[in-house]
Design brief:
This protein has 2 helices and 28 strands. By secondary structure, it is mainly beta.
C-alpha cells in the first residue's frame, strides 16, 4: 500500500510539470487580495541625430506595486535584434510600493536606436514574483541642415573685407549662423547671425573684415535640433602684404616723413639718417612739399637737393653717402594710356590681384623710371579721383626688385605741412 501511495505522488508531480496551469505567469496577481503593478509612463521619441529623447530627455516611469519592487530589469526592444538588458534599476529604501524609476539617456549613447520600439520592464517583486510592462519609443532621424553655393576661396577686397554669400537650409528651422576664422591658428568665432525666426531658408550676405594671418573662413549653420553643417572658404596666402590708410607728412612735420615698404612703418625726420641704407629696414619713399605747393613722393636716391628741409630739433638732415640711398623708381598708371594699364585698373577694382609680378600683373607695361610722383588733381599726376595707382619698384640688396602698388586715397596741400593717405600692396 505504501509503494502505491509513493507512486501516486510521483506521478501527480510529473503530470503537473506538463500542465499549462503549472507554468509561471509574470503578470499573475501576487495573492488573491493584491492586484498587478500599475506602470505610468509617457511615449517617447528618440532623435537619432542628436541622441536625445522627447518630450523629455530622461526616461521616467511611476510604478505602483502592491507587492513591492525589489528591482527592475530594463530591456531595449528593437525590431532587428533580440531584446537586451541596458540597465537594472533598484528603488530607494522605503519606496518599494510607489517607485519613481528613471533611465539615463547616457545608457543609449552608443547604441543604434534606429530600429528601437520601446523598453520592456521586467519588475521583480520582493516575494520573487514578476510583472512585465513596457514604455513605447519611436525613433526618428531629422534631415541635416545644408549650406549651398558658398565659394571655395575668396580674396579680401580693397577695403579689407571679404564678401561672403551663399544659402543656408534646414527643414528643422535655422537657429544661428556662425562665422569663424583661423587668424589665431585654430578656428575661433568672429561673428554670428541670429534672430532668424526658425527660417528654413536664409540667404547669407555677410561682409567679413579680414584679420591678419587668417587663411580660412568657416560658415556654420545650426538648426533647432542643434544639428550643424559647415562650409570652409580658403583665403589664399597672397604673395604681398597690404598696408591700409598710411598717412605720410611732408617736411613741415617732424614725424612720418618716410615710408618703409617691407615693414609698413614710418620714419620721422630724426630717424632719417638711420634709414640711409639699402636693407629692407630702410626708407623707400619720402613726402616733400615745395614752396610753390607742389606735393611729391620722392625716391630716397633723389633726395639730395631736398634733404636739408627735413629737420630734427632744428638740425638739417645731411646725407652721409647718397650712394647708400635706395634708387627707388615710380610710375603713375594713367587710365586710358594703354590697354595694359586699363587692365590693371579693372583687375584692381575687381580685387583680382593674385600677385605683383612684372611678367604677370604688370605685364605689358614698361618698368618704372621716374624718381618722383607729383600728387595733385591734374591730369597725368597721382590723383585720388583719377590716376590713383602708382607702381613703385624698390631695389633689393641681392639685385632683385620688390614691386609695390600704391593706391592714393586723399591728400592735403599746405606747403611744407602737406599730407597724403594711401593703401599700398607690398610684394613679399
Amino acid at each position: 500500500m505504501k509503494m502505491f501511495c509513493s507512486f501516486l505522488v510521483v506521478a501527480t508531480l510529473f503530470f503537473c510539470m506538463f500542465l499549462p496551469a503549472c507554468k509561471k505567469d509574470y503578470n499573475q496577481n501576487i495573492t488573491d487580495r493584491e492586484s498587478a503593478d500599475k506602470v505610468t509612463a509617457v511615449a517617447y521619441q528618440y532623435n537619432t541625430a542628436t541622441k536625445k529623447f522627447s518630450p523629455q530627455d530622461s526616461i521616467t516611469a511611476q510604478i505602483a506595486s502592491p507587492a513591492g519592487v525589489n528591482q527592475v530589469y530594463v530591456y531595449l526592444v528593437r525590431s532587428n535584434s533580440t531584446d537586451s538588458v541596458v540597465t537594472v534599476f533598484f528603488p530607494p529604501d522605503g519606496s518599494e510600493n510607489d517607485v519613481a524609476m528613471g533611465v539615463s539617456p547616457a545608457v543609449f549613447s552608443k547604441i543604434d536606436m534606429s530600429a528601437a520600439t520601446g523598453l520592456k520592464l521586467m519588475i521583480k517583486h520582493r516575494d520573487n514574483s514578476y510583472h512585465q510592462d513596457s514604455i513605447k519609443i519611436t525613433p526618428f532621424t531629422p534631415p541635416l541642415p545644408e549650406l549651398q553655393n558658398f565659394p571655395a576661396s575668396l580674396l579680401p577686397g580693397n577695403d579689407g573685407q571679404i564678401h561672403v554669400t551663399g544659402k543656408a537650409l534646414s527643414q528643422n528651422g535655422i537657429q544661428t549662423i556662425y562665422i569663424y576664422d583661423d587668424a589665431t591658428g585654430s578656428f575661433t568665432k568672429v561673428d554670428s547671425i541670429t534672430n532668424l525666426k526658425n527660417a528654413t531658408s536664409y540667404d547669407v550676405d555677410y561682409n567679413y573684415t579680414y584679420r591678419d594671418k587668417a587663411a580660412n573662413l568657416k560658415v556654420q549653420v545650426v538648426d533647432n535640433y542643434d544639428l550643424a553643417a559647415e562650409a570652409v572658404i580658403t583665403i589664399p596666402v597672397l604673395p604681398y602684404t597690404v598696408y591700409k590708410d598710411v598717412t605720410m607728412n611732408a617736411q613741415g612735420f617732424a614725424t612720418n616723413n618716410a615710408f618703409v615698404a617691407a615693414t609698413g612703418t614710418l620714419l620721422g625726420s630724426c630717424e632719417l639718417p638711420s634709414g640711409e641704407a639699402l636693407s629692407d629696414a630702410d626708407m623707400d619713399l619720402l613726402l616733400y612739399g615745395s614752396k610753390d605747393n607742389v606735393l611729391s613722393l620722392y625716391s630716397p636716391g633723389n633726395a639730395k637737393n631736398i634733404a636739408k628741409n627735413y629737420k630734427c630739433n632744428g638740425t638739417e638732415w645731411a646725407i652721409a653717402d647718397p650712394l647708400l640711398l635706395k634708387a627707388v623708381k615710380v610710375k603713375i598708371l594713367v587710365p586710358g594710356s594703354s590697354d595694359a594699364v586699363d587692365a590693371i585698373y579693372a583687375r584692381f577694382n575687381a580685387n583680382n590681384i593674385p600677385d605683383l609680378a612684372e611678367d604677370d600683373f604688370f605685364n605689358g607695361i614698361s618698368v618704372p623710371g621716374g624718381n618722383t610722383a607729383k600728387i595733385s588733381t591734374n591730369t597725368g599726376e597721382l590723383n585720388p579721383d583719377g590716376a590713383y595707382l602708382l607702381w613703385v619698384r624698390i631695389p633689393k640688396e641681392d639685385g632683385t626688385f620688390r614691386n609695390c602698388l600704391l593706391r592714393a586715397k586723399s591728400f592735403v596741400l599746405s606747403a611744407g605741412s602737406s599730407t597724403v593717405t594711401f593703401d599700398i600692396y607690398v610684394q613679399k
